[in-house]
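Sanity check

After download, print the first record. It should look like this:
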Amino acid sequence: MNQSAVTTSPLSDGVRKALEVSLRGVEELLPQDEWAKKLARSESTGKPLRIKLGLDPTAPDIHIGHTVVLNKMRQLQDLGHQVIFLIGDFTTLIGDPSGRNSTRPPLTPEQIKFNAETYYAQAAKVLDPARTEIRYNSEWCDALGARGMIQLSAKYTVARMMERNDFHQRFTDGSSISLHEFLYPLLQGYDSVALKSDLELGGTDQKFNLLMGRHLQQEYGQEPQCVLTMPLLVGLDGVDKMSKSKNNYIGITEDANTMFAKVLSISDTLMWDWYTLLSFRSLDEIAALKAEVAAGRNPKDAKVALAKEITARFHSAAAADAAEQDFINRSKGGVPDDIPDVALSGAPLGIGALLKQANLAPSTSEANRLIDGGGVRVDGGVVSDKGLKLEAGTYVVQVGKRKFARVALG
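Expected structure tokens:
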């Protein structure tokens, strides 16, 4: 993105710095000149800008890909602005059609309530809870009623709605589009009216909905919000966006050891994108670190620093240190300090059955596959015999690099 001067009047150092923070890692900031003017006005009046992020509680937990926008919120929060964490409990009843090629099945009110209860607790690991306004869009959407919904629908045309890529594609393909799906972008836009938002954040797939907020604010006589979109975080595989369905994700509720190890598994190239989008280090610090690696420093040092930062954010600095030590122990073939104790009976017990009963393999057939691949160790020795039977005693059993159990077999 072009980050050149965006207003005819000179910007103060404070506004220039705020603009630089705003632009870090973003896909688009629209319109950039309006945002600079809002920042300048905020600086001169001392009145914080209102920055909105809406999330529909479609699932009970989130992964670090979701935190890319939360990180941006935190950066703007640290500049002194008011951030609004909006839980779309009403819009979730509709189901966001963004990027979908079929009607999305809506969740029940019970599912939405369950998911919403955990959403903010997880987001608070990134945002400062003391400086975050939490709202639910059922506050104003329920109050609209049938009359208000008709009046809102009159403020946008079907022709413009059909310009939206996913609606246009589905119509062209002959796929069904339900009328209630047209309400989703209208209601998301109306959220910006209700909250008098100055800036709304979202992923690149939300651009149409975010611009709807600008349109509706103008319709209701408000100054239109600016729109900031963030790129979708590439997952562990370095190819696709982070997604649970692709199993290339890091859940923010995962244990510290797993989180640390997963960050270390990403490629050296992907690491720098993650630094820009996930780290709270300044761009100057990241550039200096990148220059050191280019000059010969081991890139693993930079990756360890990133893994510790991310792990500490969702756990603690002490947990991040312990996760680093655990990773070192595993890489040297050592046994972690904290492994589960499992008591089993039936000695002598076949190794396949033992792995299954100790929850180290989902089935005996999978256990046999792991043995064939050389992925099973007992007391440090690789198991190659699928017919092995263990007598009564205590064994440290390892599967792969990360699964351990201390098995007391009787």
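If your output differs, re-run the checksum step. Summary of this record's structure: The two ends are 66 Å apart (CA to CA).
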